[in-house]
Amino acid sequence: MITAKGIVSKLTDVFTKNPNSNIGKLLSILADQLRQLEETHDRISAWRDIDEAKGTTLDKIGTIVNQPRGVATDEVYRILIKSKIARNLSTGDINTIIQVLSVALNTDPSEVQIKEAWSDPVEPEPAALSVIQLPLESINKSGLSPRQFARMVQKTVLAGVRVREIELAGTFQFASGSETEVDEKSGFANLEGTVGGTLGYAYTPADDPDLPI
């Protein structure tokens, strides 16, 4: 970081290096201006990153990838942009769809599982698939509702392929029977909600034009 002391220290010995001298005060004013310029430059560099960009800078990134904002907040818009970039590069196969969803939610691909519906033993359906495992906590953190996320998934698959259902995995589970078994992320919650597991969620997608996904 640029400081008046740093600038003064670079002067030759023919100058007075006292920060309270006239030249020291002059360089202090210069240092303030240079520091503001340095901070602006650092901010511009940082905002090239989707995770750091805000406001109109994020809008410009969205324009580049042809992803309108609509009413989305910065947090949700970042997900839409990441998803759009990944979808633009997607070949439509299941592995690519998993990669798109994991990038959008900033989660590990191993936490996402997809099953093709044509092999369903009860209700087989060609050209359809089900997302049978997806971390609910990641969606909650993203700010997207399950319905909005379902539309994102539908836009990720190939044209003519239907997303039949989406299962969001929670963390709640009962103990195996041992009285000494304790897991604050899996059992019942306390009154404050500081510990305890989360319930899962099953959703059947429907048309809903909330966001320009």
Characterise this structure.
By secondary structure, the protein is of the alpha+beta class. It folds into 2 domains: 43 residues; 133 residues, no CATH class. It has 7 helices and 4 strands. The chain has a 4-stranded mixed sheet, with helices on one face. α3 runs parallel beside α4 and α4 runs antiparallel to α5. It starts with a helix and ends in a 10-residue tail after the last strand.
Which structural class matches the secondary elements? alpha+beta
Using only CA atoms, what is the Rg? 26 Å
How far apart lie the N and C ends? 41 Å
Q: Write down the secondary-structure element order.
A: HHHHHEEHHEE
DSSP helical segment count = 7
- Spatial order of the strands forming the largest sheet: 1-2-3-4
**Number of domain units:** 2
Number of strands: 4
Looking at the chains present, what oligomeric state does this protein adopt?
A: single chain
Low-confidence stretches: none
Sheet-strand content, in percent, reads: 5-15%
Mean pLDDT over the residues: 77
**Largest pleated sheet:** 4 strands, mixed
What proportion of the residues is helical, as a percent range?
40-55%
Taken from the alpha-carbon principal axes, the silhouette is elongated
